[in-house]
Every structure is written in structure tokens, then in C-alpha cells.
Structure to design on (235 residues):
């Protein structure tokens, strides 16, 4: 998906300077940033994902600095003008202590005049789809002519607001016969606006802007799908 690429390119140009992208994965966002001439350092916990990213860079004759490290404990020995956590990945740290550790590391790596952009789901809107029902979320034709279906089953732990997501990927040929199937799971914390604000306060951040979507619309707690936080160190 590319729905957030234009937003991040605009932020890169608005605030300028070198960017540290955390929880970068296989480079869904890193690659278009580098293609746009933006200097990006990408960090992820998964060496396997970073290997995929490096192969993508090599195949296109591109380069970026990659680091395999834990977002809760990384130390790169320098500070950055911008630090990003895209694709609503921060709540995959499901405990408050892990979230606080990550924010402490981010604060230490951010320049005094820098910005930290953290993307979250809006729990009031996102929580509506967490209903314990199997739902088809993707149906698209592949280059082979086969069809890919992606199903999600999502359940919520009410005492912790942690969501368990079960993902089922199915591929069918033109006769409608399944040729492959894959399963994966993940967890994320349905983090409220108030809870995140309290984390930010303790970590030494203050809010510059908060958007409700990637078209820069203001945040509306009842309707916005996302909370896109632009933050800086507290004066």
C-alpha cells in the first residue's frame, strides 16, 4: 500500500534533515523515500526483513543505512532531525513499559530542533472492526492471473486493550481452486489518545500537530481513522 507515502514525503521536505525510520520492515516506505532523494536510515528488529530491504535497494541501485536493533534499546551514537514510526507500528509494543523504553530511546536520538512523527490508529474508529468476526479485507488479481484473498479475525482483550489479529492469506487459480494458504498473527495495543499523551508527557515530548488522516485533515476523535502525531522535545 502507498496511502501514506505522499504524507511522509511532504513531512520530509517540511522539516528537512536526515531521517531515522524505526520499525522499517522490508522498506515499504523506505524505498519511495530513497527514490525521492531523501536521506533515510532504516532500523528494524528483524534481520530477515532488513535483508529483503537490502535486496530491494540493490536491485534498484539505491542505498540507505540499515540497522538491526530493538527499538526499546537501540543506540546509534548520533541524533536525527526527524524520527518516524510509520504504519501504526508503535502499538505493536503492547506493554506500557516497552512503549516508555522506546520513547526514551527516541528522545535521546532526536535533535533539540527535530520532530518525531508517530502514527497510531484512532481506537474509537479502529475498535469497531474488532468484533471477533472473520472478514474479507483484500481481494485482488495477481500478475499470474490468480486471485489473492486476505481474511482477518480480530479479538480484543478488554482488560488490556490488546488486539489479537489472525491473518489468513489464500491464493486461488482461475478455476477457483486454492493453490496456497498462509497464516500469520500479530498483536497491537489499542492505545487511547489520553494514554499516549501521558506517555509523551513522561518521556519529555510535546505536540506540534495532530492529524486525523494522511491528507493533513485535523484530528476528530469521533471520526478520524488515525492519530498522526508530530512531536518535538518539550522546551
Amino acid at each position: 500500500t502507498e496511502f501514506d507515502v505522499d504524507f511522509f514525503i511532504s513531512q520530509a521536505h517540511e522539516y528537512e534533515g536526515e531521517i531515522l525510520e524505526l520499525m522499517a520492515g522490508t522498506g515499504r516506505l523506505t524505498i519511495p523515500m530513497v527514490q525521492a532523494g531523501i536521506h533515510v536510515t532504516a532500523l528494524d528488529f528483524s534481520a530477515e526483513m532488513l535483508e529483503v530491504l537490502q535486496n530491494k535497494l540493490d536491485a534498484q541501485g539505491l542505498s540507505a543505512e540499515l540497522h538491526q536493533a530493538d527499538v526499546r534499546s537501540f543506540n546509534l551514537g548520533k541524533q536525527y532531525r526527524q524520527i518516524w514510526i510509520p504504519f501504526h507500528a508503535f502499538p505493536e509494543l503492547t506493554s506500557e513499559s516497552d512503549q516508555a523504553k522506546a520513547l526514551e530511546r527516541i528522545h535521546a536520538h532526536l535533535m533539540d530542533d527535530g520532530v518525531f512523527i508517530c502514527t497510531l490508529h484512532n481506537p474509537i474508529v479502529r475498535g469497531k472492526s474488532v468484533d471477533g468476526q472473520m472478514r474479507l479485507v483484500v481481494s485482488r488479481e495477481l500478475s499470474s492471473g490468480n486471485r489473492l484473498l486476505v481474511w482477518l479475525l480480530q479479538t480484543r482483550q478488554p482488560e488490556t486493550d490488546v488486539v489479537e489479529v489472525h491473518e489468513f492469506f489464500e491464493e486461488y487459480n482461475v478455476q477457483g481452486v486454492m493453490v496456497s494458504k498462509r497464516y500469520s498473527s500479530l498483536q497491537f495495543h489499542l492505545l487511547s489518545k489520553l494514554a499516549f499523551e501521558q506517555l509523551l508527557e513522561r518521556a519529555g515530548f510535546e505536540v506540534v500537530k495532530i492529524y486525523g488522516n494522511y491528507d493533513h485533515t485535523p484530528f476528530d476523535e469521533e471520526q478520524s481513522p488515525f492519530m498522526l502525531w508530530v512531536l518535538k522535545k518539550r522546551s
Observations:
- The radius of gyration is 19 Å.
- The helical segments are 5-15, 30-35, 47-59, 96-109, 123-126, 193-203.
- The chain has six helices and eleven strands.
